[in-house]
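hiii, so i know i said id send this last week but things got crazy w the move. better late than never?? heres the sequnce for the chain we talked about at the cafe, plus the structure i predicted for it. fair warning i was half asleep when i ran it
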Amino acid sequence: TKTIKVKPPVFTVKYDANGGTGTMADQTGKVYGQSFQLTANTYTKAGYSFSGWSKTSNGAVDYANQATVNNINPSANNAVVTLYAVWAEASYTITFDKQGGAGGTDSAVVTYNAALPTATAPSKAGYTFGGYYTAVNGGGTQYYDGSMAKKITAFSETANKTLYAKWTANTYSVKYNPNGATTGSAQTEAGWTYGTAKNLKTLSSLGWARTGYDFEGWATTAGATTAAYTDGQSITTSLTATNGATVELFAVWTVQVNENDRDFGAGAVVNNTFNVYNETDWNAAKAAISGGGNDKNYIINIMDNFSIAGSTDKTFGTVTGVKVSIRGKKNITLSSNGNALFVYENQTVILSGPDLVGISGNNNYLVYFYDGGYFAPGGAFHLVDGKIRDNGGGGVCLYGMSSLNFTMTGGVISGNTRTGNGAGVYVNSKDTAFVMRGGEISGNSASGNGGGVYIENRSSSTQVSARIYGGKITGNTAGGKGGGIYIASCWDTYIFACEIKGNHAATAGGGIRVEPGAGSVYNTWGFPATLDDGSGASAPASGIIITGNTSTNDTAGYNVSSAVSINDRARIYSGASGTGGWSY
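okay and structure toks below
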Protein backbone atom coordinates (compact mmCIF):
# COMPACT_ATOMS: atom_id res chain seq x y z
CA THR A 1 0.00 0.00 0.00
CA LYS A 2 1.36 3.39 -0.95
CA THR A 3 0.66 6.55 1.02
CA ILE A 4 0.10 9.55 -1.21
CA LYS A 5 0.77 12.89 0.37
CA VAL A 6 -1.21 15.76 -1.15
CA LYS A 7 0.19 19.21 -0.63
CA PRO A 8 -2.39 21.93 0.08
CA PRO A 9 -2.68 24.49 -2.65
CA VAL A 10 -0.63 27.65 -2.54
CA PHE A 11 -2.27 30.88 -3.60
CA THR A 12 -1.85 34.66 -3.88
CA VAL A 13 -4.14 37.29 -2.30
CA LYS A 14 -4.71 40.32 -4.49
CA TYR A 15 -6.37 43.51 -3.10
CA ASP A 16 -8.76 45.45 -5.38
CA ALA A 17 -9.48 49.13 -4.50
CA ASN A 18 -13.00 48.71 -5.92
CA GLY A 19 -13.38 52.39 -6.82
CA GLY A 20 -10.85 53.68 -4.36
CA THR A 21 -7.36 54.94 -4.98
CA GLY A 22 -3.90 53.87 -3.87
CA THR A 23 -1.73 50.72 -4.17
CA MET A 24 -1.39 47.60 -2.10
CA ALA A 25 1.07 44.74 -2.66
CA ASP A 26 -0.16 41.21 -3.21
CA GLN A 27 0.31 38.59 -0.51
CA THR A 28 1.99 35.58 -2.15
CA GLY A 29 2.78 32.05 -1.05
CA LYS A 30 -0.19 31.64 1.18
CA VAL A 31 -1.06 28.02 1.97
CA TYR A 32 -4.60 26.83 2.22
CA GLY A 33 -5.55 25.91 5.78
CA GLN A 34 -2.78 27.94 7.35
CA SER A 35 -3.71 31.12 9.24
CA PHE A 36 -2.34 34.46 8.18
CA GLN A 37 -3.23 38.13 8.65
CA LEU A 38 -4.62 40.21 5.84
CA THR A 39 -2.64 43.33 4.98
CA ALA A 40 -3.85 46.58 6.56
CA ASN A 41 -5.92 48.60 4.08
CA THR A 42 -4.25 51.69 2.58
CA TYR A 43 -6.82 52.46 -0.11
CA THR A 44 -8.98 55.60 0.19
CA LYS A 45 -12.13 56.82 -1.47
CA ALA A 46 -13.35 60.42 -1.19
CA GLY A 47 -16.54 60.67 0.83
CA TYR A 48 -16.41 57.05 1.97
CA SER A 49 -15.02 55.05 4.83
CA PHE A 50 -13.48 51.58 4.51
CA SER A 51 -15.68 48.80 5.93
CA GLY A 52 -13.69 45.64 5.10
CA TRP A 53 -13.08 43.11 2.30
CA SER A 54 -15.50 41.14 0.17
CA LYS A 55 -14.88 38.12 -2.09
CA THR A 56 -17.04 39.80 -4.74
CA SER A 57 -17.01 43.35 -6.11
CA ASN A 58 -20.49 44.16 -4.88
CA GLY A 59 -20.83 41.84 -1.95
CA ALA A 60 -21.05 42.37 1.77
CA VAL A 61 -18.03 42.35 4.05
CA ASP A 62 -16.45 38.89 4.36
CA TYR A 63 -13.28 39.89 6.17
CA ALA A 64 -12.52 42.83 8.47
CA ASN A 65 -9.46 44.98 8.00
CA GLN A 66 -6.30 43.05 9.05
CA ALA A 67 -8.40 40.02 9.88
CA THR A 68 -6.60 36.71 10.62
CA VAL A 69 -7.93 34.09 8.17
CA ASN A 70 -7.43 30.40 7.33
CA ASN A 71 -10.51 29.70 5.31
CA ILE A 72 -9.77 31.32 1.98
CA ASN A 73 -10.39 28.56 -0.58
CA PRO A 74 -8.43 29.01 -3.80
CA SER A 75 -9.83 27.50 -6.97
CA ALA A 76 -6.53 25.78 -7.77
CA ASN A 77 -2.89 25.63 -6.86
CA ASN A 78 -1.13 28.93 -7.54
CA ALA A 79 -4.47 30.61 -7.99
CA VAL A 80 -5.06 34.35 -7.33
CA VAL A 81 -7.76 35.17 -4.83
CA THR A 82 -9.04 38.77 -5.21
CA LEU A 83 -10.51 40.62 -2.23
CA TYR A 84 -12.54 43.75 -2.99
CA ALA A 85 -12.66 46.83 -0.76
CA VAL A 86 -16.09 47.52 0.66
CA TRP A 87 -16.92 51.23 1.02
CA ALA A 88 -19.64 53.00 3.06
CA GLU A 89 -20.70 56.63 2.73
CA ALA A 90 -18.98 58.76 5.41
CA SER A 91 -20.85 60.94 7.94
CA TYR A 92 -19.90 64.55 8.67
CA THR A 93 -21.08 67.31 11.01
CA ILE A 94 -22.62 70.54 9.74
CA THR A 95 -22.18 73.40 12.25
CA PHE A 96 -24.59 76.32 11.95
CA ASP A 97 -22.85 79.63 12.74
CA LYS A 98 -25.75 81.96 13.59
CA GLN A 99 -23.73 85.18 13.21
CA GLY A 100 -25.28 86.83 16.25
CA GLY A 101 -28.63 85.08 16.03
CA ALA A 102 -30.19 82.78 18.61
CA GLY A 103 -32.29 79.63 18.63
CA GLY A 104 -32.65 77.16 15.81
CA THR A 105 -30.44 74.15 15.06
CA ASP A 106 -26.86 74.26 16.35
CA SER A 107 -25.43 71.32 14.38
CA ALA A 108 -26.54 68.23 12.42
CA VAL A 109 -25.01 65.03 11.03
CA VAL A 110 -25.03 64.52 7.25
CA THR A 111 -24.07 61.54 5.11
CA TYR A 112 -21.87 61.97 2.06
CA ASN A 113 -23.79 62.16 -1.18
CA ALA A 114 -27.10 62.19 0.73
CA ALA A 115 -29.73 64.89 1.18
CA LEU A 116 -29.11 67.68 3.69
CA PRO A 117 -30.57 67.13 7.15
CA THR A 118 -33.69 68.99 8.22
CA ALA A 119 -32.89 72.00 10.43
CA THR A 120 -34.63 75.03 11.95
CA ALA A 121 -33.86 78.73 11.50
CA PRO A 122 -32.42 81.10 14.13
CA SER A 123 -33.77 84.57 14.89
CA LYS A 124 -32.18 87.95 15.50
CA ALA A 125 -34.03 91.07 16.73
CA GLY A 126 -34.25 93.67 14.03
CA TYR A 127 -33.06 91.41 11.22
CA THR A 128 -34.56 89.03 8.65
CA PHE A 129 -32.95 85.62 8.19
CA GLY A 130 -31.79 84.90 4.64
CA GLY A 131 -30.52 81.34 4.94
CA TYR A 132 -27.19 79.55 5.49
CA TYR A 133 -24.17 79.94 3.22
CA THR A 134 -20.64 78.55 3.04
CA ALA A 135 -19.20 82.05 3.63
CA VAL A 136 -20.23 85.02 5.78
CA ASN A 137 -22.63 87.73 4.56
CA GLY A 138 -24.25 85.44 2.00
CA GLY A 139 -21.00 84.48 0.28
CA GLY A 140 -20.19 81.14 -1.30
CA THR A 141 -22.85 78.49 -1.88
CA GLN A 142 -26.30 78.64 -0.33
CA TYR A 143 -27.27 75.40 1.45
CA TYR A 144 -30.55 76.58 3.03
CA ASP A 145 -32.87 79.50 2.23
CA GLY A 146 -34.65 81.79 4.71
CA SER A 147 -37.34 79.18 5.36
CA MET A 148 -34.65 76.49 5.80
CA ALA A 149 -35.63 74.79 2.55
CA LYS A 150 -32.69 72.79 1.13
CA LYS A 151 -30.92 74.43 -1.79
CA ILE A 152 -28.54 71.58 -2.80
CA THR A 153 -29.62 68.05 -3.66
CA ALA A 154 -26.80 66.15 -1.96
CA PHE A 155 -23.90 66.80 0.38
CA SER A 156 -20.68 66.40 -1.61
CA GLU A 157 -18.14 67.62 0.93
CA THR A 158 -15.56 65.24 2.37
CA ALA A 159 -15.07 67.00 5.70
CA ASN A 160 -17.08 68.66 8.47
CA LYS A 161 -18.69 71.89 7.28
CA THR A 162 -19.55 75.25 8.87
CA LEU A 163 -22.42 77.23 7.39
CA TYR A 164 -22.98 80.94 8.11
CA ALA A 165 -26.29 82.72 8.64
CA LYS A 166 -27.12 85.66 6.41
CA TRP A 167 -28.98 88.56 8.01
CA THR A 168 -30.60 91.60 6.43
CA ALA A 169 -31.44 94.58 8.65
CA ASN A 170 -35.16 95.26 8.81
CA THR A 171 -36.53 98.46 7.35
CA TYR A 172 -39.43 100.55 8.58
CA SER A 173 -41.13 103.91 8.14
CA VAL A 174 -41.77 106.83 10.48
CA LYS A 175 -45.06 108.72 10.36
CA TYR A 176 -45.00 112.24 11.75
CA ASN A 177 -48.36 113.24 13.26
CA PRO A 178 -48.87 117.03 13.65
CA ASN A 179 -51.10 116.36 16.68
CA GLY A 180 -53.04 119.63 16.63
CA ALA A 181 -50.73 121.80 14.56
CA THR A 182 -52.34 124.87 13.05
CA THR A 183 -50.59 124.28 9.73
CA GLY A 184 -49.27 121.11 8.14
CA SER A 185 -50.41 117.52 7.73
CA ALA A 186 -49.09 114.08 8.57
CA GLN A 187 -46.02 112.91 6.65
CA THR A 188 -44.51 109.44 6.36
CA GLU A 189 -40.81 108.92 5.85
CA ALA A 190 -39.55 105.57 4.52
CA GLY A 191 -35.96 104.37 4.43
CA TRP A 192 -35.32 103.74 8.11
CA THR A 193 -33.06 100.74 8.71
CA TYR A 194 -32.69 98.87 11.97
CA GLY A 195 -29.31 99.52 13.59
CA THR A 196 -28.48 102.45 11.31
CA ALA A 197 -28.46 105.95 12.79
CA LYS A 198 -30.80 108.45 11.16
CA ASN A 199 -32.07 111.88 12.16
CA LEU A 200 -35.71 112.62 12.80
CA LYS A 201 -37.21 115.36 10.70
CA THR A 202 -37.10 118.84 12.13
CA LEU A 203 -40.16 120.99 12.64
CA SER A 204 -38.88 123.46 10.04
CA SER A 205 -38.47 120.73 7.42
CA LEU A 206 -42.06 119.59 8.05
CA GLY A 207 -43.36 123.14 7.81
CA TRP A 208 -45.65 122.83 10.82
CA ALA A 209 -46.70 125.43 13.35
CA ARG A 210 -49.24 125.75 16.14
CA THR A 211 -50.38 129.20 17.15
CA GLY A 212 -49.66 129.96 20.80
CA TYR A 213 -47.59 126.82 21.34
CA ASP A 214 -43.93 125.83 21.34
CA PHE A 215 -42.77 122.55 19.82
CA GLU A 216 -41.04 120.33 22.40
CA GLY A 217 -40.27 117.24 20.34
CA TRP A 218 -41.81 113.84 19.62
CA ALA A 219 -43.71 111.25 21.65
CA THR A 220 -45.16 107.85 20.84
CA THR A 221 -48.65 108.73 22.12
CA ALA A 222 -50.94 111.60 21.18
CA GLY A 223 -51.61 112.68 24.77
CA ALA A 224 -48.00 112.84 25.97
CA THR A 225 -46.96 116.06 27.71
CA THR A 226 -43.22 115.42 27.57
CA ALA A 227 -41.15 114.54 24.53
CA ALA A 228 -39.34 111.23 24.15
CA TYR A 229 -37.27 112.55 21.22
CA THR A 230 -36.03 116.02 20.42
CA ASP A 231 -36.35 118.00 17.21
CA GLY A 232 -34.05 116.43 14.60
CA GLN A 233 -32.62 113.92 17.09
CA SER A 234 -30.28 111.25 15.80
CA ILE A 235 -31.87 107.85 16.45
CA THR A 236 -29.13 105.29 17.04
CA THR A 237 -31.07 102.49 18.76
CA SER A 238 -33.91 102.21 16.20
CA LEU A 239 -37.57 102.88 16.85
CA THR A 240 -38.78 99.34 16.07
CA ALA A 241 -37.35 95.91 15.30
CA THR A 242 -40.31 94.86 13.13
CA ASN A 243 -39.73 94.64 9.39
CA GLY A 244 -42.10 96.78 7.35
CA ALA A 245 -43.61 98.49 10.40
CA THR A 246 -44.68 102.14 10.56
CA VAL A 247 -43.82 103.98 13.76
CA GLU A 248 -46.07 106.95 14.46
CA LEU A 249 -44.58 109.90 16.32
CA PHE A 250 -46.76 112.66 17.67
CA ALA A 251 -45.72 116.28 17.98
CA VAL A 252 -45.62 117.50 21.59
CA TRP A 253 -46.77 121.09 22.03
CA THR A 254 -46.61 123.28 25.12
CA VAL A 255 -48.35 126.58 25.67
CA GLN A 256 -45.95 129.39 24.93
CA VAL A 257 -44.54 131.14 27.95
CA ASN A 258 -43.41 134.71 27.66
CA GLU A 259 -40.18 134.42 29.61
CA ASN A 260 -39.98 138.16 30.13
CA ASP A 261 -43.50 138.30 31.56
CA ARG A 262 -42.71 135.24 33.71
CA ASP A 263 -39.44 136.62 35.04
CA PHE A 264 -40.12 140.37 35.27
CA GLY A 265 -43.91 140.76 35.17
CA ALA A 266 -46.22 141.70 32.32
CA GLY A 267 -45.16 144.85 30.51
CA ALA A 268 -41.87 145.12 32.39
CA VAL A 269 -38.95 146.76 30.62
CA VAL A 270 -35.76 144.74 30.07
CA ASN A 271 -32.91 147.20 30.56
CA ASN A 272 -30.21 145.12 28.92
CA THR A 273 -29.56 141.70 27.39
CA PHE A 274 -26.12 140.06 27.40
CA ASN A 275 -25.11 137.20 25.08
CA VAL A 276 -22.33 135.39 26.92
CA TYR A 277 -19.91 133.01 25.18
CA ASN A 278 -16.99 132.87 27.65
CA GLU A 279 -15.71 133.99 31.03
CA THR A 280 -14.71 137.41 29.68
CA ASP A 281 -18.28 138.05 28.53
CA TRP A 282 -19.58 136.76 31.87
CA ASN A 283 -17.39 139.13 33.85
CA ALA A 284 -18.40 142.03 31.60
CA ALA A 285 -22.09 141.30 32.17
CA LYS A 286 -21.56 141.11 35.94
CA ALA A 287 -19.75 144.43 35.94
CA ALA A 288 -22.42 146.14 33.86
CA ILE A 289 -25.21 144.91 36.17
CA SER A 290 -23.26 145.75 39.33
CA GLY A 291 -22.76 149.32 38.12
CA GLY A 292 -26.09 149.76 36.40
CA GLY A 293 -28.08 151.08 39.33
CA ASN A 294 -31.02 149.80 41.34
CA ASP A 295 -34.38 148.39 40.18
CA LYS A 296 -33.29 147.15 36.76
CA ASN A 297 -34.16 144.02 34.75
CA TYR A 298 -31.49 142.03 32.89
CA ILE A 299 -31.24 138.93 30.70
CA ILE A 300 -28.05 136.89 30.41
CA ASN A 301 -28.12 134.36 27.54
CA ILE A 302 -25.51 131.62 27.97
CA MET A 303 -24.49 130.90 24.36
CA ASP A 304 -21.71 128.32 24.87
CA ASN A 305 -20.06 126.11 27.47
CA PHE A 306 -17.34 127.83 29.46
CA SER A 307 -15.60 127.85 32.83
CA ILE A 308 -15.45 130.60 35.44
CA ALA A 309 -13.31 131.07 38.51
CA GLY A 310 -15.16 130.44 41.75
CA SER A 311 -15.67 133.52 43.88
CA THR A 312 -16.97 134.54 47.29
CA ASP A 313 -17.67 138.07 46.07
CA LYS A 314 -21.20 139.23 45.33
CA THR A 315 -21.94 138.31 41.70
CA PHE A 316 -23.99 141.44 40.94
CA GLY A 317 -22.57 143.72 43.58
CA THR A 318 -24.81 145.45 46.10
CA VAL A 319 -27.38 147.01 43.76
CA THR A 320 -30.91 146.42 45.02
CA GLY A 321 -34.17 145.63 43.32
CA VAL A 322 -32.47 144.10 40.29
CA LYS A 323 -33.82 141.01 38.55
CA VAL A 324 -31.44 138.87 36.50
CA SER A 325 -32.74 136.07 34.26
CA ILE A 326 -30.00 133.61 33.25
CA ARG A 327 -31.08 131.53 30.24
CA GLY A 328 -29.67 128.96 27.82
CA LYS A 329 -28.89 125.25 27.55
CA LYS A 330 -25.12 125.29 28.10
CA ASN A 331 -22.83 124.67 31.08
CA ILE A 332 -21.07 127.11 33.38
CA THR A 333 -18.35 125.12 35.16
CA LEU A 334 -16.20 126.23 38.07
CA SER A 335 -12.46 126.18 37.46
CA SER A 336 -11.55 126.96 41.08
CA ASN A 337 -13.14 126.96 44.54
CA GLY A 338 -15.88 129.42 45.36
CA ASN A 339 -19.48 130.16 44.43
CA ALA A 340 -20.83 130.22 40.90
CA LEU A 341 -23.54 132.69 41.99
CA PHE A 342 -23.40 134.86 45.12
CA VAL A 343 -26.80 136.58 45.36
CA TYR A 344 -27.08 139.51 47.74
CA GLU A 345 -29.98 141.07 49.63
CA ASN A 346 -32.99 142.37 47.68
CA GLN A 347 -31.81 140.82 44.42
CA THR A 348 -33.74 138.28 42.34
CA VAL A 349 -32.01 135.70 40.16
CA ILE A 350 -33.90 133.32 37.84
CA LEU A 351 -31.97 130.33 36.48
CA SER A 352 -33.71 129.00 33.34
CA GLY A 353 -31.66 126.38 31.61
CA PRO A 354 -27.89 126.53 32.06
CA ASP A 355 -26.18 123.94 34.21
CA LEU A 356 -24.03 125.22 37.06
CA VAL A 357 -21.30 122.60 37.50
CA GLY A 358 -19.03 122.47 40.52
CA ILE A 359 -15.73 120.84 41.36
CA SER A 360 -14.63 118.35 43.98
CA GLY A 361 -13.02 119.67 47.13
CA ASN A 362 -14.93 122.95 46.91
CA ASN A 363 -16.35 123.78 50.34
CA ASN A 364 -18.61 126.50 48.93
CA TYR A 365 -22.17 126.23 47.68
CA LEU A 366 -22.70 126.70 43.95
CA VAL A 367 -25.50 129.19 44.66
CA TYR A 368 -25.09 131.24 47.86
CA PHE A 369 -27.82 133.66 48.91
CA TYR A 370 -26.80 136.00 51.72
CA ASP A 371 -28.22 139.20 53.16
CA GLY A 372 -25.16 140.41 55.04
CA GLY A 373 -26.64 139.45 58.38
CA TYR A 374 -29.01 142.42 58.50
CA PHE A 375 -32.78 142.66 58.71
CA ALA A 376 -32.89 143.75 55.07
CA PRO A 377 -35.78 143.56 52.58
CA GLY A 378 -34.72 140.09 51.33
CA GLY A 379 -34.63 138.67 47.82
CA ALA A 380 -35.37 135.57 45.75
CA PHE A 381 -33.78 132.78 43.75
CA HIS A 382 -35.89 130.82 41.24
CA LEU A 383 -34.79 127.56 39.63
CA VAL A 384 -36.89 127.05 36.50
CA ASP A 385 -34.68 124.72 34.45
CA GLY A 386 -31.11 123.47 34.24
CA LYS A 387 -29.01 121.67 36.81
CA ILE A 388 -27.03 122.68 39.88
CA ARG A 389 -24.74 119.71 40.09
CA ASP A 390 -21.56 117.86 40.98
CA ASN A 391 -20.14 120.28 43.53
CA GLY A 392 -17.96 119.37 46.48
CA GLY A 393 -19.52 122.07 48.68
CA GLY A 394 -23.26 121.72 48.17
CA GLY A 395 -25.95 123.03 45.82
CA VAL A 396 -28.01 125.99 47.09
CA CYS A 397 -27.67 127.89 50.40
CA LEU A 398 -29.98 130.59 51.82
CA TYR A 399 -28.35 132.19 54.86
CA GLY A 400 -29.16 135.40 56.71
CA MET A 401 -31.62 137.42 58.74
CA SER A 402 -33.95 138.67 56.03
CA SER A 403 -36.73 137.20 53.90
CA LEU A 404 -34.84 135.04 51.43
CA ASN A 405 -37.10 132.96 49.19
CA PHE A 406 -36.12 129.98 47.06
CA THR A 407 -38.71 128.70 44.56
CA MET A 408 -38.04 125.58 42.52
CA THR A 409 -40.47 124.93 39.67
CA GLY A 410 -38.15 122.72 37.60
CA GLY A 411 -34.55 121.81 37.09
CA VAL A 412 -32.35 119.43 39.02
CA ILE A 413 -30.08 119.74 42.05
CA SER A 414 -27.95 116.61 41.98
CA GLY A 415 -24.62 114.99 42.69
CA ASN A 416 -23.53 117.54 45.29
CA THR A 417 -21.65 116.60 48.46
CA ARG A 418 -21.25 118.51 51.68
CA THR A 419 -19.10 118.09 54.77
CA GLY A 420 -21.79 119.14 57.20
CA ASN A 421 -25.53 119.66 56.72
CA GLY A 422 -27.65 120.15 53.60
CA ALA A 423 -25.87 118.95 50.48
CA GLY A 424 -28.70 119.74 48.04
CA VAL A 425 -30.49 122.72 49.63
CA TYR A 426 -29.52 124.43 52.90
CA VAL A 427 -31.92 126.99 54.44
CA ASN A 428 -30.92 128.91 57.58
CA SER A 429 -32.59 132.29 57.53
CA LYS A 430 -35.34 134.53 58.89
CA ASP A 431 -38.87 134.67 57.48
CA THR A 432 -37.73 132.53 54.55
CA ALA A 433 -39.74 130.24 52.32
CA PHE A 434 -38.51 127.20 50.45
CA VAL A 435 -41.15 126.37 47.81
CA MET A 436 -40.80 123.31 45.60
CA ARG A 437 -43.37 122.94 42.83
CA GLY A 438 -41.41 120.61 40.54
CA GLY A 439 -37.97 119.50 39.57
CA GLU A 440 -35.73 117.02 41.28
CA ILE A 441 -33.32 116.98 44.21
CA SER A 442 -31.38 113.76 43.83
CA GLY A 443 -28.12 111.98 44.52
CA ASN A 444 -26.79 114.52 47.02
CA SER A 445 -24.81 113.44 50.08
CA ALA A 446 -24.20 115.25 53.39
CA SER A 447 -21.93 113.99 56.15
CA GLY A 448 -24.33 115.56 58.66
CA ASN A 449 -28.10 115.93 58.45
CA GLY A 450 -30.29 116.56 55.41
CA GLY A 451 -28.79 114.86 52.37
CA GLY A 452 -31.37 116.44 50.06
CA VAL A 453 -32.85 119.40 51.98
CA TYR A 454 -31.91 120.97 55.33
CA ILE A 455 -34.24 123.60 56.87
CA GLU A 456 -33.59 125.56 60.06
CA ASN A 457 -34.86 128.82 61.57
CA ARG A 458 -32.19 131.48 61.91
CA SER A 459 -33.53 132.38 65.37
CA SER A 460 -36.41 131.46 67.64
CA SER A 461 -38.34 134.56 66.60
CA THR A 462 -38.21 133.86 62.87
CA GLN A 463 -40.70 132.07 60.66
CA VAL A 464 -39.13 129.78 58.08
CA SER A 465 -41.64 127.73 56.11
CA ALA A 466 -41.40 124.92 53.61
CA ARG A 467 -44.00 124.23 50.92
CA ILE A 468 -43.53 121.11 48.81
CA TYR A 469 -46.21 120.97 46.10
CA GLY A 470 -44.51 118.57 43.71
CA GLY A 471 -41.26 117.20 42.34
CA LYS A 472 -38.96 114.44 43.46
CA ILE A 473 -36.49 114.10 46.33
CA THR A 474 -34.68 110.85 45.57
CA GLY A 475 -31.47 108.96 46.22
CA ASN A 476 -29.98 111.41 48.75
CA THR A 477 -27.94 110.28 51.76
CA ALA A 478 -27.15 111.74 55.17
CA GLY A 479 -24.47 110.66 57.61
CA GLY A 480 -26.86 111.76 60.36
CA LYS A 481 -30.63 112.23 60.12
CA GLY A 482 -33.03 112.98 57.29
CA GLY A 483 -31.69 111.37 54.13
CA GLY A 484 -34.26 113.17 51.97
CA ILE A 485 -35.43 116.10 54.14
CA TYR A 486 -34.20 117.28 57.55
CA ILE A 487 -36.26 119.91 59.39
CA ALA A 488 -34.36 121.17 62.41
CA SER A 489 -36.75 124.02 63.17
CA CYS A 490 -39.43 125.51 61.00
CA TRP A 491 -42.56 127.60 61.51
CA ASP A 492 -44.56 125.12 59.51
CA THR A 493 -44.05 122.61 56.74
CA TYR A 494 -46.66 121.66 54.14
CA ILE A 495 -46.01 118.62 51.98
CA PHE A 496 -48.79 118.59 49.42
CA ALA A 497 -47.55 116.21 46.73
CA CYS A 498 -44.16 114.81 45.91
CA GLU A 499 -42.11 111.65 45.64
CA ILE A 500 -39.57 111.01 48.38
CA LYS A 501 -37.84 107.85 47.29
CA GLY A 502 -34.69 105.83 47.86
CA ASN A 503 -33.06 108.20 50.36
CA HIS A 504 -30.89 106.94 53.23
CA ALA A 505 -29.97 108.24 56.67
CA ALA A 506 -27.43 106.69 58.97
CA THR A 507 -29.40 107.35 62.17
CA ALA A 508 -33.06 108.34 61.66
CA GLY A 509 -35.56 109.43 59.06
CA GLY A 510 -34.38 107.91 55.80
CA GLY A 511 -37.05 109.90 53.97
CA ILE A 512 -37.95 112.77 56.33
CA ARG A 513 -36.72 113.73 59.81
CA VAL A 514 -38.49 116.44 61.83
CA GLU A 515 -36.79 117.46 65.10
CA PRO A 516 -38.58 118.45 68.35
CA GLY A 517 -39.83 122.03 68.32
CA ALA A 518 -39.71 122.20 64.57
CA GLY A 519 -43.24 123.52 64.31
CA SER A 520 -46.26 121.97 62.67
CA VAL A 521 -45.93 119.48 59.85
CA TYR A 522 -48.94 118.93 57.57
CA ASN A 523 -48.95 116.13 55.06
CA THR A 524 -51.40 117.36 52.42
CA TRP A 525 -53.70 119.83 54.16
CA GLY A 526 -56.82 118.09 52.95
CA PHE A 527 -55.47 116.48 49.78
CA PRO A 528 -55.15 112.69 49.31
CA ALA A 529 -51.71 111.28 49.95
CA THR A 530 -49.86 108.01 50.28
CA LEU A 531 -46.76 107.64 52.44
CA ASP A 532 -45.43 104.39 51.09
CA ASP A 533 -42.02 102.79 51.57
CA GLY A 534 -42.37 100.45 48.62
CA SER A 535 -44.61 97.75 50.11
CA GLY A 536 -46.64 97.66 46.92
CA ALA A 537 -49.79 99.63 47.80
CA SER A 538 -51.03 101.81 44.98
CA ALA A 539 -50.79 105.58 45.33
CA PRO A 540 -53.50 108.02 44.29
CA ALA A 541 -53.03 110.22 41.25
CA SER A 542 -51.80 113.05 43.46
CA GLY A 543 -50.30 113.14 46.90
CA ILE A 544 -47.15 112.07 48.67
CA ILE A 545 -45.24 108.90 47.88
CA ILE A 546 -42.56 108.04 50.43
CA THR A 547 -41.02 104.84 49.11
CA GLY A 548 -37.89 102.76 49.44
CA ASN A 549 -36.07 105.01 51.94
CA THR A 550 -33.72 103.39 54.44
CA SER A 551 -32.23 104.21 57.81
CA THR A 552 -29.49 102.25 59.51
CA ASN A 553 -30.68 102.62 63.09
CA ASP A 554 -34.17 104.13 63.20
CA THR A 555 -37.22 105.00 61.13
CA ALA A 556 -36.88 104.69 57.36
CA GLY A 557 -39.77 106.70 56.00
CA TYR A 558 -41.15 109.56 58.11
CA ASN A 559 -39.66 110.31 61.55
CA VAL A 560 -40.99 113.31 63.51
CA SER A 561 -40.95 114.70 67.01
CA SER A 562 -43.39 117.60 66.71
CA ALA A 563 -47.00 118.41 65.85
CA VAL A 564 -48.15 116.46 62.82
CA SER A 565 -51.42 116.55 60.88
CA ILE A 566 -51.99 113.45 58.75
CA ASN A 567 -54.86 113.44 56.29
CA ASP A 568 -57.31 110.60 56.87
CA ARG A 569 -56.60 109.25 53.39
CA ALA A 570 -52.86 109.04 53.93
CA ARG A 571 -51.32 105.60 54.29
CA ILE A 572 -47.98 104.78 55.90
CA TYR A 573 -46.14 101.49 55.60
CA SER A 574 -43.14 100.02 57.33
CA GLY A 575 -39.71 100.61 55.86
CA ALA A 576 -36.21 99.17 55.96
CA SER A 577 -35.13 100.29 59.43
CA GLY A 578 -35.37 99.56 63.08
CA THR A 579 -38.87 100.90 63.74
CA GLY A 580 -40.69 100.90 60.43
CA GLY A 581 -42.03 103.57 58.13
CA TRP A 582 -43.47 106.05 60.63
CA SER A 583 -42.67 107.18 64.17
CA TYR A 584 -43.32 110.21 66.32
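btw The longest helix spans residues 279-290. thought thatd interest u
miss u guys!!
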